[in-house]
Amino acid sequence: MADALAEVAGLLVEVRDTRALAQRIVDEVRRPLGALGALLCRLDHRPRTLEPVAVSGDVGPEYGMPLVFAVGAGTPGLAAAVREPVVTANVLADARIWLPEQTRRAIEHAPFRAVLAVPLVLRGAVTGTLCILDREGRVFTADEARFAQAFAHQAALASRTPVSTRRRRPPQRRPSRRVVSRTTSSPRSRTSCDLP
Fold first, then answer.
1. Which of 21, 63, 39, 49 lies closest to 158 in space, CA to CA?
2. pLDDT at position 8, please?
3. Has residue 25 been placed in a domain?
4. Which terminus of the chain is more solvent-facing, meaning fewer CB atoms within 10 Å of its CB: N or C?
5. How far is 166 from 10, CA to CA, in rounded Å?
6. Rounded to two decimals, what is the model's pTM?
């Protein structure tokens, strides 16, 4: 896996378009891990949500780009909150992982259950998460978790390249999204807010 990581690090630095870089990250992480799919999320500090920016592979018709994860919710949110890899053989059955109803329904219609989620950390700050998705029963190993974390670090480094060297596309107006988040008063209490 060390050779794959070195190869990918070189490939990521060559990509000049931010959207193409995000897509390359999720496409490339699947290959050495033999995974069904991958999801890359960017942390939006206001209102502390993780927004999917790229998806690769078979993640089902409802999972990925239309969802937004509150920090602490789902495997992307949990990895961002604990700042370390989160591994589960079945995301729907894992009591550590709180899933909003919309996310749970999307995963129920998806072919994956096993998840390895790692935070993207740059200069001590979480900037996003990278999730590797596979069929139920897949047990990601400690070596695979270390590889995914190293890969996420390379992805974070590649994405910090000065914006002037990457082609920027004009911002697109996004439809309103509903984010479900957890309050700290009770593990089951939820609040929601509309995002522009």
1. 21
2. 53
3. yes
4. C
5. 16
6. 0.76
